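README, section 4: Worked example with a bound small molecule

Sections 1 through 3 covered apo chains. Here we extend the same pipeline to holo records, where the ligand is supplied as SMILES alongside the sequence. The molecule in this example is flavin-adenine dinucleotide. Nothing else about the input changes; the structure line simply encodes the ligand pose together with the chain.
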Amino acid sequence: MGSTITCDVAIVGGGLAGGLIALALKARHPALDVRMIDAARVVGGNHRWSFFDSDVSEGDRWIVAPLIGNSWMSYEVAFPAHRRTIGTVYHSIDSERLDAVVRQTLKPSALMLSRVVTELSATRISFADGDRLDARGVIDARGTGDLSVLDLGWQKFVGRELRLSVPHGSERPMVMDATVDQLDGYRFVYCLPLAPDRMFVEDTYYSDHPTLDRAAIGDRIHDYAVDQGWQVEQAGREEAGVLPVVMSGDFERYWQSSGAGIAKAGMRAGLFHPTTGYSLPDAVRTAALIAARTDFTGVGLHEATHEFAREKWRRRGFFRMLDTMLFKAADPAERYRILERFYRLDPSLIGRFYAGTSTMIDKARVLTGKPPVPIGRAVRALAGRS
Ligand SMILES: Cc1cc2nc3c(=O)[nH]c(=O)nc-3n(C[C@H](O)[C@H](O)[C@H](O)COP(=O)(O)OP(=O)(O)OC[C@H]3O[C@@H](n4cnc5c(N)ncnc54)[C@H](O)[C@@H]3O)c2cc1C
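The generated complex, written as structure tokens:
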């Protein structure tokens, strides 16, 4: 017979969304007994999360500020016919830092790592070893729900940190270098100059299928570094991702796929950008929403997170439509043209696009002008959406 633990709020999944909620809750309600449960031994897994300054509102900045490891004043993009520097601040957080800050904030007994959850409800968690946790409210932040209920393309990548024997001389991130060979859909390389002799290089594909050939992509990262003239002394930490790019899907079905009536956050709540699969901006907003509450009951947290996520999903039909055009109307080798054209637009419009806050005028600007995909195919692709 295991023991029963009681607490105020139990966050299951100590990744990006769960970590930010824990930090925000403890900052706003220091006396609240918050527990964080994860199957892994560390908080945040093995990730580097980056975001534009414009992704996070002034009022929510306090949530991410202690986590930022690198910031740059501008970033670059490059396409076959167009290269541009954009004066938007760009930030990066690594999971080791999230792990360290969460450990400083939560008492050791509140951080329940390496724990296998067998059952979960809005107020109770059962563990494989027979222990039980009763909470006023449970938040499920265990990563993606059942993605098979959505109609998806994929953004997949392998990123590797390179230590160089000669400084690279780059001042700013290269967020999209699409001058590379177009393989497996829309391909670009993403580079973050972490230090004068450290470069993070990520080879990325907007692909029809989720299979990731890590060895082949690793070779391409090496070739890219050689092409840039970088002298690689050592290849370090590596990460990989296969993120959903949503063309269509029923929000309620996705929500229910990982349990009804339980509060959710992060990818599990459908709180990610349909076009990039990135969830940091929504994770910050969710942490702010939860920290501003005083009702931490399971029912109250479920209502609040469900309503928040449903509203975001409803407002993001535009991005799902663009994803359909990208994946269904454009030939894979021509997909880069859509992004090349997009990156000629106003920087503040680009910022709102990534923050998921495009206005009606932004949407009209993105869609007007000579379409970079065959218009007949675009119409057929949109008509065929489920
Ligand atoms: C390599 C990579 C890089 C990315 N880069 C960016 C980026 O730069 N910017 C951005 O906005 N987005 C990025 N994303 C996309 C997305 O924002 C991240 O995946 C983000 O971590 C999702 O947050 P989350 O909290 O929903 O899930 P996760 O961060 O994946 O956290 C889920 C947690 O739940 C735990 N868990 C799972 N199952 C169980 C279980 N049964 N019991 C207990 N614990 C469990 C896991 O161990 C994990 O810690 C990236 C994704 C990847 C994979």
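What to look for in the output: The radius of gyration is 21 Å. Residues 4-70+90-145+258-315 form a domain with the FAD/NAD(P)-binding domain fold (CATH 3.50.50.60).

Section 5 describes how to batch many such records.
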